[in-house]
Structures are given as structure tokens and as C-alpha cells.
Specification:
This protein starts with 28 loop residues before the first helix and ends in a 10-residue tail after the last helix. A four-stranded antiparallel β-sheet has the order 1-8-3-6. The protein folds into two domains: 144 residues, Sandwich (Jelly Rolls); 84 residues, Orthogonal Bundle (Arc Repressor Mutant, subunit A), CATH 1.10.10. By secondary structure, the chain is α+β, with helices and mostly antiparallel strands. A hairpin with a 5-residue loop joins β4 and β5. It has eight helices and twelve strands. The radius of gyration is 19 Å and the shape is elongated.
Length: 249
């Protein structure tokens, strides 16, 4: 029987009938592992789910029942901090995994996840994933490498952020979005609110507005509502070069 996530509303459970074999996300761990998976039942038993823009599909503190792989769309991953303040952990796009931090060792998700645009998610149940990992050494090895890389990025980010000024953290956030999502018509291809920039940079909305204002006066960025354009990537990179901005991709 196909397992589905309890955190998606009934309206979002419409099948999109996208098989792993037909998937175009070559950076997806499941897609890359297809040659080593011994049978097709594992991928056939996944659930392909639609998630509307603004819909939360993982509730922080909910039981871990499986992992989500983004087939299409962009997702915001966050944790709740002091006084209920939201701290954005990362932004994820096609081919990336959501919910992996709680998989295997913890019973509850330590993060929440919200779709930033209409998205399509592939959901694999915890039981089916664990069974496949036990019987497929190459798949288990690839998953281990994935977790090692995630841990490395997380540790490097914590180290860098702790040593950055507010301005440097905001610049780092802009460059992170630029590296990951690129440009569209001269603006970053992921429109975010000032509050979302603040929640990712670990600062306040007011401070983000001040930094953006200063960067605009220095002609380093342009802004039009939520749209932010970077005029001089090289200069922004140079400003935070001591913090190895390139480590968080």
C-alpha cells in the first residue's frame, strides 16, 4: 500500500503520476540511486503530492513518518526559536531532501517546512526507506555521504555566522540566494520579504532594511518591492571573503 504523509491536506493528495525513472532531477538522491536499487516496488510505492504556495507540509514536533524529495518548487525550512521567533534554516529547491534531520534517530521533526510556491513533493515512508537502506549497501553509502556533507555545511555555517557582523550576515544571505537560485530578469530568482531575510540572517527586519538601504546607496544592489538585484557580486563576495561564503551552497 502507498504511504502518504499525514501533514498534507486531502486536497493536496492528488496524484501527479511522475515516476522516478521519468524524473529530470539528476541531483536527487533517489534518481541517482536508481541503477543500484534492486526492484521498482520501492519507487512505485512513493506518494507524489501537490502542495500549494504558503502551505505547511511538515509541522515542527510532529512524528517522523518519512522524507520529502522536492520534484518541483521551492521550500522554506525553519525552526521556532526564543519567544516563538522563526529561524529559517535553509531554502530548498528541486531534487533536495526535506525532513532528513529527524530521520532514523529521532521520533519527531525538529523543523517545519512551508512551500514558497506551488510545489510537487515525492514522499517516501520511513519504513520503506529503512528497509531499502538495509538491503542496498550502495544506497546506504550514498545516504551516509549526503549526511556527512550536510553536517559539514551546517558546522561551517554556524562558525561563519558567529563571526559575522549584521551587514555581513545580510550580504551572505543575498549571495546564498544568488548562488542557489540565480537571477531572473536582473533580480534574484527567489523573491523574499525583508522578514524572511532577517529570519535567515539571524537579525531583525529593521536591521535588514538598514543594510539594504546602505547597499542601495553604494550601488551594490537594486530593490523593487520584494525583488532584489545584485549589481556587483564580486564586491559583495570580497566583503565577506574572510568567512568562506562559498561553503554554504
Amino acid at each position: 500500500m502507498t504511504s502518504t504523509s499525514p501533514y498534507i491536506s486531502t486536497k493536496s493528495k492528488a496524484k501527479t503520476n511522475v515516476s522516478c525513472e521519468a524524473c529530470m532531477n539528476d541531483n536527487c538522491l533517489i534518481k541517482r540511486s536508481l541503477p543500484t536499487l534492486s526492484d521498482s516496488e520501492f519507487t512505485k510505492n512513493k506518494s507524489t503530492l501537490k502542495c500549494k504556495k504558503g502551505q505547511q507540509f511538515i509541522m515542527e514536533g510532529a512524528p517522523v513518518n518519512g522524507l520529502f524529495f522536492i520534484l518541483k518548487g521551492t521550500v522554506k525550512v525553519f525552526r521556532t526559536g526564543i519567544n516563538g521567533r522563526e529561524q529559517i534554516v535553509r531554502f530548498a529547491k528541486e531534487g533536495e531532501i526535506i525532513g532528513h534531520r529527524g530521520f532514523g534517530t529521532e521520533e519527531y521533526y525538529s523543523i517545519g517546512a512551508i512551500a514558497l510556491q506551488d510545489s510537487v513533493l515525492c514522499y517516501f515512508s520511513k519504513d520503506s526507506l529503512q528497509s531499502k537502506l538495509l538491503e542496498t549497501p550502495k544506497f546506504a553509502y550514498d545516504m551516509m555521504l549526503f549526511y556527512a556533507n550536510e553536517l559539514n555545511r551546517s558546522e561551517n555555517k554556524v562558525k561563519s555566522i558567529s563571526q559575522m557582523t549584521v551587514r555581513e550576515r545580510v550580504i551572505d544571505s543575498l549571495l546564498y540566494i544568488h548562488r542557489k537560485f540565480g537571477d531572473l530578469n536582473g533580480y534574484l530568482n527567489l523573491p523574499l520579504s525583508r522578514r524572511e531575510y532577517a529570519d535567515y540572517a539571524g537579525t531583525t527586519e529593521e536591521q535588514v532594511i538598514r543594510v539594504f538601504s546602505a547597499l542601495k546607496k553604494e550601488d551594490l544592489i537594486t530593490a523593487k518591492g520584494k525583488k532584489i538585484g545584485i549589481n556587483d557580486v564580486r564586491m559583495l563576495k570580497q566583503e565577506i571573503s574572510d568567512h568562506n561564503y562559498f561553503l554554504d551552497t
